[in-house]
Amino acid sequence: MNLLAMQPDGLEIAYIVVGILLGIAVIAALIAQIVVIIGYWRGNRTQNLLGMTGGEFARKLLDENGMQDVKVKKCTILRTLLFGNHYSIARKTVFLRILTINKASVTSVALAAQKVALAEQHRDGNKKMIVRGRLQGLGVFAPALFIPLVIVGILLDLFVFESLFMTLIVLVLGVLFIIFSFVVILLNIPVEKSAMKRAEEMLAPYLTAEEAATVKKVYRSYMVEYVMQFVVALLRIIQLILKILLAARSSK
User: Fold this and answer.
1) Separation CA 240–CA 153 (nearest Å)
2) For residues 214 and 230, what is the distance between their CA atoms, to the nearest angstrom?
3) 3 domain-assigned
4) What is the distance between the alpha carbons of residues 81 and 97, in angstroms, rounded to a whole number?
5) Rounded mean pLDDT of 238-248?
6) Of 110, 130, 171, 204, which residue is 20 to 30 A from 182 by alpha carbon distance?
7) How many domains are contained in the chain?
8) Rounded mean pLDDT, 132-148
9) Residue at 5 is within a domain
10) Could you tell me if 44 and 105 are in contact, meaning their C-beta atoms sit under 8 angstroms apart?
11) Distance (Å, rounded) from C-alpha 175 to C-alpha 169?
């Protein structure tokens, strides 16, 4: 038995290392998400001195900034699960969760202001925001579609084409979907950061120093979550590339 042949080479070692780093990043992303939930919950327990709900404040800011054509609506259950609080460029609507739109808390006005800032970016033609908005739906569904697409390709090749043609086609499509998802996550960081900065400017005349400090903490925790999502997505793409290279090598 050749012991040297059994030892992993550089490509295999890289795949293992990336897998370990991905596991660590996923755990870190989960922790970041928990921190966001805790920060949101704490801020949502504190009433804002304005006495305005997130929905009312979003409407006020939109009207004050010349965006009367932008609507404010409550998220449906499906939108809540898939997107949470968000701005839709297709419908020119700020969608807010029920605990944001109907509650007069510090967190509710903070998130409402940030989504209004996204609507402002859309109005002003911010290219990064518009690209992110158009790809957002695909970014949500793309990772989940990858495996089903590959399975469909394999089945078609086995029972219809009797070749690897469809498998390769859907594999390429699957990789493209994952890349689109990665682009959405990549654009999240500058787009959301810019919107948070603008939201702080909008909020400044209305919040006390203590409320403003709470808002900063909420925004900061969201940014950490976005960065961790980016790291996880990047490692997944690297892992996928390494997996394809290993598969291509083993097929020779």
Assistant:
1) 18
2) 25
3) no
4) 10
5) 77
6) 110
7) 1
8) 67
9) no
10) yes
11) 10
In angstroms, how far is the first alpha carbon of the chain from the final one? 22
pLDDT, residue 156, reads: 65
Which residues span the domain enclosing 165? 11-246
Predicted pLDDT of residue 2:
47
Q: Two tokens at 215?
A: 């808002």
At 40, list the tokens.
Answer: 């949101």
| Alpha carbon distance 147, 74 (integer Å) | 33
DSSP 8-state code for residue 75: P
Would the pLDDT of 232 be above 50?
A: yes
Phi, psi at 71, each rounded to 5° = -90, 160
| Cα separation, 110 vs 52, whole angstroms | 11
Residue 204: pLDDT band with limits 50, 70, 90: very high
Task: Provide the angle, in degrees to the nearest 10, between the axes of the packed helices 209-250 and 165-203.
Answer: 170
Give 21's contacts (C-beta < 8 A, 6+ positions apart): 235
Per DSSP, what are the bridge partners of residue 94?
A: 72, 87
Nearest Cα residue to 196 out of 217, 175, 177: 217
DSSP β-ladder status, 86-88 and 71-74: unpaired
Q: Report yes or no on 116 lying in a domain.
A: yes
**In this structure, which amino acid lies at residue 207?**
L
